[in-house]
Each structure stands twice: as C-alpha cells, then as structure tokens.
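thought: fold this chain, then report.
action: predict
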Amino acid sequence: MKDMKNFDIIPDEYRTLDEVEIKQRIGAAKQRLGKNLTILGHYYQRDEVIEWADHEGDSFELSRFGASAPAKHIVFCGVRFMAEAAAILASPGQRVYLPNMEAGCPLADMADIEQVEVAWKALERAGAAADIVPVAYMNSSAALKAFCGRMGGTVCTSSSAAKAFAWAKSQGKRVFFFPDENLGLNTAIASGIDRSDIATWDPITADCESAARAAKDAAAIVWRGYCHVHTFFKPEHIADARANNEGCKVVVHPECSPEVVVLADANGSTSYIKKYAEQALAGSTVIIGTEINFVNRLARQNLGKRIKPLVRSLCPNMFRTSLADLLWTLERIGEVNEVTVPASIKMEARIALDRMLAL
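observation:
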C-alpha cells in the first residue's frame, strides 16, 4: 500500500482552474473513458463531487458495485480504507484510485495493526485468545481486515455487526471488536450483553498484561477508537431537538455513544438512515445525527418533510476531495492516485470479507 506520506501531489495548475472549466473537463474525461470508468461517491461527499458519481452509497456497497462493474478504472470519492476495500474486492484487471490521497480516516487509524498484534499476543499469554474471535468494522485498514481473516475472524458493516456478534456466539466465542468502541458497545448491548460485562481495550494507556487478564472474564472486548463526526452528538442535543420540534423522530448512527443511541427513536447505518427519511410520513419532522453533507442532501431530496441535523457535524476527510482532485485523477488516470493492496494482505482480507458475505 502506498505510504500516504509519499502520495502524488496535485499540480497548482489544477487548483487555480475555475469551476466552469473544471466541470467541462471532467465531462470530457468521463466521455473519453466511457465504459472503462466508474466513479463511486460516498454519501458524505459534498454535492459538487456526488454530481459526477455513477453510484452513490455506503463504503462496502460501493466497493461491491465497483467490483461488479465492467469498468477497468474505479475512482472512489471517499477515504483511504474505502478505496482499499474496493481494491481488495476488485476483479482482475481493475484498478482503483482515490482522488485525494490525503483523505484518510482517523477512526481506521486508531487500530494500528502493530498495536492489535501486541494486544492479541497478550491475550494469548493470558490464555484468553482461544475463545475470542476478532471482528473488524469496515472502517478499518486492509491490514486489520487481513489480521481478522488470518485469525478466523470476520469484517462487518454497521448494519451487519449484530450478525457478526451472533456468528461468534454460535461458535461459543466472544468478540474482540475493532476499531469503533461505540459501535461495539451498542451492538453488544443490543445482543443482550450487560455493559458491565464489556471490557474496553485502550491501545494507548492499557497495561497489556492486566488488560488481557481483565478481558479473560469479559463477555465482549471493544477497542477504544471513535469517529469524531458521531461522538460530537450528545444527549443534550436530543433533548434540545425534542423541545424545539414537537412530535419529531430522532435517528442516529450507531457510532454515536450508547447514551445518545438509547435516547434516539432509531439507529442504523447510513443506508438505514436514508431509508428512514424516505419512508417518513409527509409533513413529519426527522432529526438526524450523522454527517452534515448527507443530512442536507436528504433534506433536499425529501421535500414535504422536515429533515434536520441534530447538530452540524462535518467529516473533514471526506471534504478533502474536490472537483480539482477528481479532474486531475481522471485526466491522469493510470498515472496518479492509484490505491493498491499487497497480494498477501489482499488474500487474507478477502477471506474475512467473504466470511461477512456468508453471514
């Protein structure tokens, strides 16, 4: 995988182009590449980028769409881990690109593979690893997905996390969940595990040996990582929303804290939230706790309903991708911004993803 510190740098000449010319040249590049190109746009991208996407959706949904497309070139307007997943699932001959190689994901980076391996070895020394299965959230590095594939674990999305927990339980095993603590907590609690029986592994402050001994008796273990977009939402925001919007419904993402999730009327993946807004009755008010670009787009797409953000929370890494980045990638397709995954990591990560698909 290309070191993000050594990524391709967009020339200044692209940064200084006016929007009209950029759009004209993007249109020309798309026409030139034709069926050899598929542009994927994550829900959190800004509107001017989404406008050029051939398909809009969640990260895993987009990766699968790209792999099934006949196109040779897949341009993923999202963040790093998404492009990696697309490269893992890509068909032979397909190439994957990320328009802005600085678009990483702090959450995915919070579960560094070396820290995970240190934690796992500590669990082995404590005699706890044998009945634990690692589960990586889709918002994770290719290396962590590969670790799960190698250790008999799986990957999950926010919508399939409950199935992953049930799958582990059916084997008589407990889950070690990476890297989002809140999604792990919310899923474990929803599956009937008492919060007092859930251990949190802090890769920064944990004494590994003590943490491993404590985890030996835990019903589940969750890695201490978080998405700042969703931890921004607080219980008081829901209280304010209900006070100012009589009869409203509140729906949030399960990356929010358990204290927020329990106060909401519903919680689910980005696709779930989209469907929730679409199925709301005309004239109703839906307050949504997730990324602001997506909420604003839902409001424009669902006229006749009042779709409002719980509070404004922006993903700055999604926002990094600009029209200039997209244009540069299209005009230099095959030369810049390609995301590749080493064969060994790709093989093991694919095992974990296939286990998820089999659930």
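thought: worth noting. The chain has three domains: 4-105+318-341, 111-225, 233-312.
final: tokens above.
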